[in-house]
Amino acid sequence: MTLLQELDKIYFFMKRDIRSFSTYKTNILLSVLSALFGALSYAFLGSNAQMQSVLNSYHIDFTTYLIIGIAFNTYLSQSLTLVQKTINPWSLEEVLVSPTGLVTFIIGSSAWGFIWSTLVIAIYLAVGVFAFGVVLSINIIGTVLVVALGISTFIGFSMIGAGILILTKQGDPITTGITIATNLFGNVLFPPQVMPQALQVISYFVPQYYFFTTIRQVLTGATLLTILPDLLILILMCAVILPLGYLIYSWCLRTAKKNGTLSWF
Amino acid sequence: MKSAKDFAIVTHDVTKNYKSRIRNLEQRTSFFHRNHRTVTAVDHLSLEIRRGETFGLLGRNGAGKTTLVKVLCTLLPPDEGTAIVNGFDVVKQQMQVKRSIGTIFSVGERGFFWRLTGYGNLEFYAAINNVPRHSRKERIMEVLDLVGMKGNAFQLFQKYSGGMKRKLALARALLADPPILLLDEPTTGLDVVSSRTIREFIRDDLSRKQGKTVLYTTHYIEDASQICDRIAIMQKGRLIALDTPNALRALAKKNEVSDVIVKNMSKTQINALKGMYGVASLAADVQDAMLGQTRLRLRLENVDTLPEIFDFFFKEKIKIVNFKQEEPTLEDAFIELTGSGIKE
């Protein structure tokens, strides 16, 4: 056993991993993009002097803004990966040979994740209320409606991402793209108004912006009438994204079955 | 004259091609170009399996057995042809097909949740296989009892041995009491005793007592010959023989069979022996790698050729450790039909 031999072994361990890694090209690209946009969003959060003045127009303090943003972002992140979790190659085939429909399969596989996320949100909000003096005045009907729309929209995204993952077996660009869009343009950690004008415009095209804007309002006492314009846009986006997600997911599942690649990962 | 109702499974000209992307960089023409290859896994395969029959599908790895099972259980749509299971089309009537079958895939522990107990796992699968809630508990205990796992019902799945996992997979397949069982290599990787227990259960309980139709794929020849009413041999996606185990054995009977164990015989020498006049077929398996022993299953067209074979061993300085002449087995029939041993 010589040092050269050991170095040779280390080199081949590395070579094995690089070869395997290089076959996941989408994944590589997405990791780089995530890092880039992640850094950008924290930069906006940390270095913007206008933050408080923008938040004044929201009639909310920064702690409340942030607690609600982080709590419900956990919810959406959970929704975004829920359908992907159902395509666990370990059990997918066994479930698919049972007489269980696709909708039951997706809802059944996601149900516990939602319940758990709801508990996590409750913890976030409780910490906010009891430790940081966050004042909430919850419009229950509005909250349920906005949450249902947000989840449905994100399940739509999740189905698109999962469908692509079933087909490509590589990184899922949709989930990464949505996560980036949420962090940067979604009104989660900072209001889009603190970004340069050109980037602000993008916010108006992402459903996360409308979700986070309306959820903050209904949790701090706003009526449905007050949030109606943003709510209508959210309803419209959900009406497009959810069925589109279902169609794409079922098409990808059918294609993978046809190609015989359902359990290849 | 048998009608369609007499058959549990009917396939007509079923073909399944796999198109896969070549991921290995060394085989690709460039880093950015996506090369594909097409492999025909099942090639215009037609067969009829009678109700209540235990039907063996025998073939080497890659012969197309698993693909056929996946077509029959609706996981893979055929590219050509039709497949009917329990009277239902696997493409157009998927739900009815799924209600008619119980399945074990070749990796038996797949689909089980390791942090749940055996009972907990079956409870989940009973629910998604439409076992009524009121009779679920009773049915789970019944199938666990059938496979001899009642005493281990509340152990965590991760604590089960390989044999217990397979038995649980069998119990899962039986949960909804389906008339047809598709068992894809249910004994692979098991020890001799566990393997025999499962085979006997399939033959005695499922087939004889319960009258279920069993499609049993395996590459263990003796497994198939012990429990199957009929056996089909698959090679490269095609059906090359279909008959009872005895009739298949008879195919090889016309030739003399010698079982020879030799020492230090090279691949070149094996090929030279294979090409000798009078040698109908030759299958070689490593008998003992440490001792350099190889087992030769030699079929001769005529017993008169034997002296020439011994002469070959003598000239090539190959030591004969053991030699015996035997009645042809199903393995010989397999070699006769496929031109190679099942383990090659």
Helix content of chain B: 25-40%
Main sheet: strands, sense, barrel of chain A: none
What would you say the CATH architecture of the largest domain in chain B is?
A: 3-Layer(aba) Sandwich
Tell me the major beta sheet of chain B: 6 strands, mixed
Q: SS-based structural class of chain A? A: mainly alpha
In short:
The complex is a heterodimer of chains A (265) and B (344). Chain A has 265 residues and is an all-alpha fold.
Task: Explain how this protein is built.
The complex is a heterodimer of chains A (265) and B (344). With 265 residues, chain A is mainly α. Chain A has eleven helices and no strands. Chain A has helices at residues 3-22, 25-47, 51-58, 62-86, 92-96, 102-132, 140-168, 173-185, 197-203, 207-219, 224-259. In chain A, helix 4 packs across helix 10 and helix 7 packs antiparallel against helix 10 (207-219). Helix content of chain B is 33%, strand content 30%. Chain B contains eleven helices and 14 strands. Chain B has a six-stranded mixed β-sheet with strand order 6-7-8-3-9-10, sandwiched between helices. In chain B, strands 2-1-4-5 form a four-stranded antiparallel β-sheet. In chain B, strands 12-13-11-14 form a four-stranded antiparallel β-sheet, with helices on both faces. The radius of gyration of chain B is 23 Å and the shape is globular. In chain B, 40% of the residues are buried. The chains are: A mainly alpha (265), B alpha/beta (344). The A-B interface holds A 19, 22-23, 90-91, 93-100, 108, 257-262 and B 16, 18-20, 23, 25, 41, 67, 70, 73-77, 79, 95, 98-99, 101, 103, 105, 110-113, 125, 128-130, 172.
